Batch of 2 targets.
Target 1
Amino acid sequence: MGGIEFLKGHGTQNDFVILPDAAGGLELTPERTAALCDRQRGLGADGVLRVVRSSALPGDVPGTEDSAAEWFMDYRNADGSAAEMCGNGVRVFARYLVESGLETRREFAVGTRAGDRPVQVHPDLSVTVAMGPARITGASVAVVDGRELSGVAVDVGNPHLVSTMDDDVAGLDLRDQPRFDHEFFPGGVNLEFVNTVEPGALRMRVYERGVGETRACGTGTVAAVAAALHLSGTDTGTSTVDIPGGRVTVTVDPEGSTLTGPAEFVARGELDAGWWASLA
Ligand SMILES: N[C@@H](CCC[C@H](N)C(=O)O)C(=O)O
């Protein structure tokens, strides 16, 4: 058996192993995902993006009921769990489809567990994603670094809790999982910590469900802008968001939000077939 093709890429340093699997034959177990993402025993990444034709999916994949997308982004977190959506991942996924020739258009939809996400691949290879509505679902509390921080709960297809702070988010210790209300978020939650630098400019750090602290989270930046707008009494606006891995631009609108940012590739190669088989 030959090796398994992979690429390594990132969106604002939220990094991914991309596994092309058009026919859907790859057995991507939680164990294999966790090993691939492990920075010592694997390639190292925040998550895995399996590139599979929608027609090759089993019939029961959430989000695909009304899908018109030819390609499905099967996103997995570094701990092996599947998640509904990944805003940085979908940009990398879209660039991969265009550059590999699997997609000849520059504007098309990508299927995800949160539903189809229309994308536009720009001439400079940055990508704009239509992220759907960002829904405010209530208020809750995160406990980080011994501090209790109130937050706005936002659903962007996946769950987020956004805490805005007066002191610099750079000072937070995010090495350990912050505590949150498991009754409010029974499936877990992504936690964002945000400073308003000036109107239309946010700074953010994130502790992702299923991963830990990452250098960026696309859905998290959309949640952050939606929460900041909500707290200032509106539901529409545009903001840049600076995360440790770079900058993205987010527009929030009740009709739907957009996320624009870079998508980069750094390597491609083959997984060792024996290593892969040993993880089954
Ligand atoms: N990094 C992603 C979000 C990935 C999924 C998240 N960890 C979850 O479990 O919901 C992004 O860029 O949006």
Target 2
Amino acid sequence: MESPANTRDINRKREDYLEWPDYFMATAFLAAKRSKDPCSQVSACIVNEDNVIVGIGYNGMPKKCSDDEFPWFKGSKSDLDNKYLYVCHAELNAILNKNSVDVRNCTMFVGLFPCNECAKVIIQSGVKQIIYMSDKHGMKQSTIASKRMLDAAGIKYKQFAPKNRKIIIDFDEINWNDQNQLPTSPVMDNTAKLEKMSLSNGLRTRLDLEHSFNGHKPQES
Ligand SMILES: O=c1ccn([C@H]2C[C@H](O)[C@@H](COP(=O)(O)O)O2)c(=O)[nH]1
């Protein structure tokens, strides 16, 4: 759990930082917020062996298939009027969105246990481990088939055990230590002033500098 801002010690390494697994699952859950699916917002975050995120995706209509025009129903009599024939699954999107050469030996963090179609793509892509949050469709044949294929392919899967049940993102938090900044030193040496001169715009800073050299001007280059 994060400590409230006003109880933090600004001189000690934070102990309440997000650990990798919570960070990756939270990243997946954040991406899921982009999904337009009214029932299940699913997403996947692919991480390589160096803990670098190499792909993120969520369930959504394919590119150029407007999510205002294609259906989000699931109970319509005609399959053509339901979402299932159209939606790209989160896992597929995450793999297609990869920003690395491939996703071999990567771990996939997913909200929902991958269906059989996603399992096929996961196996072919070389992902070696799946960490999932929910197995709510565990009794469905598509999930049973998925597990059968993943087992055969030697891909490990395990349910996520979060350290934090809730992670709150507060856009105002960046300003929490506004009042706790160390005061700037009253004695600024000439080196610092030279750096300042190169960083900020000309005349005023230059005049400061000339003043601090007690009248001995630095040579013009
Ligand atoms: O492995 C999966 C399985 C499903 N999805 C997507 C496809 C749909 O948009 C929803 C499932 O909708 P329900 O209303 O819960 O049946 O989840 C996925 O991305 N990956």
